[in-house]
Amino acid sequence: MSSTYKDDLESKGFLPFHLDHLTPHMIQKAKQELNETESTRSSSIKQLRELIKKEKNFQCRMDDEFLLQYLRARKFNVKKAFDRLQTFYQMVSKSFSDVFLHMDEESAKKAIRTGFMSHLPYRDKDGAAIVGFKMSNWNTEELDAFSVMNCCGIVIQSAIDYPATQVCGVQLLIDCKGTSVQHMTCLTPRLLYLVSKGLRGAMAIRFKGVHLINASAIFRYLWAIINVFLTEKLRKRIHFHDNNLENLHKYIPKEILPTEYGGDCPNFDPHELGLAEMETFLPKYFQIMHDGYRKN
């Protein structure tokens, strides 16, 4: 990515995906939209930590940074934050433990290397991270559905790890081109239900928009199943753009989109971005996913 492009984006106020702090605007946004202040932050972390300690046969990270993810996702309502945390770990360590608990490092690396999923280098004007899926990069003969689910988990959890994402949310960009009968066979009703759970409230994130382009009849069939389980609020944030890139640009600025989507971002390589992210975040991902509920 050229320095000229980076300089141009910075001059227009676009912020990078890798942002290790909250800007003054984000701090004010957290206060107004999430009820976050120094006082509520301190007391809420303490209350949430106590609820976790009382939960039987349960363990998870209890550092401030991790607990803030759930508090911000639920606007500092401690009870709702704890419910979200419970829902996440019931999914990971109980209902879908076969999907998440047996994923090994090499399989995770293989999934990331496909470029099936990655983030864009820059955030939108509101500070939301843009996470992209590319169905054509999923070769079902080389990558099974469980690995794909973990690939999704790695990229989204890595986005959540940034406070800026916790405050400003995520937009999903799903390029459906290349969706095949083989994909349909791999994505069983049970796994489609898992996708719906992730979207509708099992993760410590607020989805600000879901944008689908190049949606074939096969993909629309799969999405119709997912859609049954989504909330009305989220359904209103789902946009089918087909191949109308001008319409997509109304929601995600063309300045930060790759050229294949009518954008200005040169030399976008999801494989390279995925690998760079994986090396730093993968150990943290495994720690998160191996926590949860334990048998007596």
Describe this structure in words.
By secondary structure, the protein is of the alpha/beta class. 54% of the residues lie in helices and 10% in strands. The protein contains 15 helices and seven strands. It has a five-stranded mixed β-sheet with strand order 2-3-4-5-6. Helix 4 crosses helix 5 and helix 11 crosses helix 12. The mean pLDDT is 93.
Strand order of the largest sheet: 2-3-4-5-6
Helix count equals 15
Q: How far is it from the N-terminal to the C-terminal residue, by CA?
A: 52 Å
Structural class: alpha/beta
Low-pLDDT segments:
none
Q: State the order of secondary-structure elements, H for helix, E for strand.
A: HHHEHHHHEEHHEHHEHHEHHE
Annotation, overall tally of beta strands: 7
Strand content: 5-15%
**Largest sheet entry:** 5 strands, mixed
Backbone shape: globular
Rg from alpha-carbon coordinates: 19 Å
Q: What integer is the average pLDDT?
A: 93
Helix proportion range: 40-55%
Write the layout of secondary structure elements.
Blueprint lengths: L2 H9 L12 H11 L3 H17 L3 E2 L4 H10 L4 H18 L1 H4 L4 H9 L3 E3 L9 E6 L10 H16 L2 H6 L1 E6 L5 H6 L2 H12 L6 E7 L3 H12 L3 H4 L2 E5 L2 H4 L21 H21 L1 E2 L3
Parallel strand pairs: 3-4, 4-5, 5-6
Antiparallel strand pairs: 1-7, 2-3
Helix pairs in contact: 3-4, 3-5, 4-5, 7-8, 7-15, 8-15, 11-12
Describe the structure concisely for a colleague.
The chain has helices spanning 3-11, 24-34, 38-54, 64-73, 78-95, 97-100, 105-113, 145-160, 163-168, 181-186, 189-200, 217-228, 232-235, 245-248, 270-290, and strands spanning 58-59, 117-119, 129-134, 170-175, 207-213, 238-242, 292-293. It is an alpha/beta fold. The radius of gyration is 19 Å and the shape is globular.
